[in-house]
Amino acid sequence: MSGKRVLITGATSGIGMETARGLAKLGYSVVLTARDNARGEEARNELVSSTGNKDVEVLFCDLGSFASIRKCAAEYRERFDRLDVLVNNAGVWDFHRQQSADGIERIFAVNYLAPFLLTNLLLDSLKVSAPSRVVNVASGLHQGVLHLDDLELKEGWSGMKAYRQSKLAVILWTRLLSKKLAGSNVTVNCAQPGLMRTNLARDAPWAYRVGFLMFGKRPERGAQSSIYLASSPDVQQTTGEYFKDSQVARSSKESYDMDVAARLWDVSMKIVGLSGK
Ligand SMILES: NC(=O)c1ccc[n+]([C@@H]2O[C@H](COP(=O)([O-])OP(=O)(O)OC[C@H]3O[C@@H](n4cnc5c(N)ncnc54)[C@H](OP(=O)(O)O)[C@@H]3O)[C@@H](O)[C@H]2O)c1
After folding, report:
1. What is the CATH number of the domain that holds 48?
2. Residue 191 lies in a domain
3. Cα(12) to centroid of ligand 1, in Å?
4. Each residue of 97-128: pLDDT tens digit?
5. Which of 17, 89, 95 best tests ligand 1's pocket when mutated (most atoms within 8 Å of CB)?
6. E-strand spans in 15-141?
């Protein structure tokens, strides 16, 4: 057993479930989040029976609600002393505009604001467990610019544009957070899983769904970068990077713009209701 504890969001299906399975097999104590208690329990049972690791627990968290994220983080801190790895995996890809419980465009809220808030709320747990790691699941689909004056894309929303922008935000935030965490021995990197056959395209037009089915690989494959970033000694010191196939890769030109990242940070702090730097 590794003696290390990992928290994984969105481990009820797809890449998150396979990341949880891989880390449970490596002996990690696994805590997963679920937005539905029954599905969370089902995932826990499946992980325990397929890996033989009984140290799997579930916390309720609707990542589309700041109140739920705050409650989940508080519960985590109350129940567990340490957090060695946080994997921000959960994500959505709506093709019909939806709003989070806080009235924010849902793709931006769940894919970016939720991990931003959850990570900030768990930073102390990560710091006391250092060396520790944050793994953010990004995407190859992150091209375009960040619309700082219209992050919810009230003008010209499309599922593709909103998804790309949310993942660009994740990469910008990862790079800036790594700088803010310099010297803390807490690293933060992005994983790009590649196209995987999961439930992500459930709301997509049929042509997309067919594309996912025909060209998507099995989610076990997509989980490899997250498992590598969470556990490999090779990346113990690596931070602020974007990984594809378990190797550092280039992301879009816009994703290196630290002025935009700093402005995004300030706006995000205000939206999620946090203070400080
Ligand atoms: N599949 C791909 O080709 C691909 C490519 C690049 C990046 N990604 C990224 O990989 C990550 C995992 O996606 P996936 O492909 O494995 O899709 P998935 O099978 O749909 O899994 C998404 C997970 O996120 C959870 N989730 C969604 N909305 C939530 C909310 N409001 N609150 C709490 N949990 C929520 C889902 O819970 P439920 O089970 O309750 O729905 C599920 O566990 C995402 O960040 C996605 O953007 C995927």
Report:
1. 3.40.50.720
2. yes
3. 9
4. 999 999 999 999 999 999 999 999 999 999 99
5. 89
6. 29-34, 56-60, 85-88, 132-137
